[in-house]
Amino acid sequence: MLTFQELICASPFYHVEIIGGWKGKENSFSIVEDDTACLDKPVLFIIPSNAEKISMLDEYVTIQSVKGILIYGKTEPYIPRKTLEFIETLNKPVLFLKDDINPFSLKKTAADLAQLKTMGLYHYVYEHSTNYWLSLLQEQGLEGFLQRISLFIGQEIFLLNEHFYLHPIYEESGIRGQFKHLASLFYQQSAGNSKNEIFTMIKDGQHHYFLIPVISGNHHFGFILFQEQPSMMIDVYIEQVIHTIPALLSYYKNEESVLKAHQSYKENFLYNLLYNNLESEQQLIKQGKQWGWDFTMPTELMVLRINQKNKMAKTSIDTASVMRKIRSLISSQFLQVITFLLQGDIIIIVFDSENLLPKHRKELSLSLAQQLFNKLEQGLSDLECQIGIGRHYASNLELFRSFYEAKLALELGKYEIRHKAVRHFEDIGIARLLSNIHQHKLHEYYTEVLKDILVDKENSTIYLDTLHAFFQNNADINQTAEQLYIHPNTLRKRIKKIESILNIDFNQLDDLLEIYVTLKIMKMIK
């Protein structure tokens, strides 16, 4: 005896269209017949798709020994709606095979399949069906593939990734995390099981689920999941689903290689954008559209750098997690963002409104960067992050300038008297000018201005620390003294001593500025 569930796993029957009555998929038949005079056993009745035979469908389907009907032929049959509704009430499968096949051939094939089942060799039929699933996946894509499996077993099939989230194909339904809670149940249940288990059954309240791993070697792509139903022929269902896995693996591997190539192409495009290798704005806009980026919109560029607070520590940096947090925060403000790694830094390109004034655009960048810093600092106990922001340019083809400026803001910001975690290129002051002067000339300048202090090996460190603290506190005697843990009068005497050594007067703006710039140069070089 062969069930309709088993029949459609074999060639040529896996090409059939299920017209109705599929609730009777577990009906069994022992013979295939096309003659109403030979209906003394449970039978699959076959008829050609001509109008005369189709008009008698109501009569055929009500015969007690007929467990289901297969219509065959090149022409798809027209079956009235009332007849379809009637078929559904009987739970007898009615199938259509679009093939002008010889009825004798259909009988012979079905008889051979029944013989294989009797001999316990039906697993060869399932194995042979793999080619069908591969072909179907290529022709109809993943969505058509899943619909067909779901149709075969009479319920929806779900694809989960290794973290128990639904495949992105389900994104529109908004249920990606629907089965996330099954992860803990699965790992608890499979803790003592063999790694070679074909499937795991998980109990979740009133529901039981079959979970079949999709694995190739050591690469775990995820799971196929479906729910147990009453009176389910478990062996048949599992066999059917398992033999779709080679096709799924082929799809996943192909998708993975395409994704890698796509990622490589995307990275190359972004690299060219930031290093001024694109020929025109039209090329920029056209290529950006491939990833859904609208480069006709204004952009702001930031560079985020994460460093160890303790140089001796070896804390790992989960940059993927950091980038997810960045995207989450910026997306929550209804802004589109690009994040990617480049030379150890995280590059952030934010698309903003066309209607912002330059002042407001800069304020938005600083506010956004500060929010990012605050959010990331909470989860980076042993790490510190800094953010450099470049200027906005009218053309996105000049993002390379903004990129250079953001990196410069990071580098030169380190030499500021007052340290800031978030720095805009426009706010780094005189260091912007100094960065364009050759280091040899800068070294010459600061050693010449401070030579009389530098030669005093015994006191030079004290004098330089005093000057740094003095400018860091905006020349405020009391605050500087407090930072240095000395009395204000002691500080005043020390300042006078420095003025005397350098032959300067801090009451003169020129002298004050010269020492301030010299200290900044010294810090930059060292």
UniProtKB/TrEMBL annotation:
Where does the source fall among the domains of life?
Bacteria
Q: Where is the CdaR GGDEF-like domain?
A: 280-412
UniProt xrefs under Pfam families = GGDEF_2, HTH_30
Q: Which residues form the PucR C-terminal helix-turn-helix domain?
A: 463-521
Q: Output the InterPro entries linked to this UniProt entry.
A: CdaR-like_regulators, CdaR_GGDEF, PucR_C-HTH_dom, PucR_C-HTH_sf
PANTHER family documented for this protein: CARBOHYDRATE DIACID REGULATOR
Spell out the family assignment given in the record's similarity comment.
Answer: Belongs to the CdaR family.
Q: What is this protein called?
A: Helix-turn-helix domain-containing protein
Please name the source species.
Answer: Niallia oryzisoli
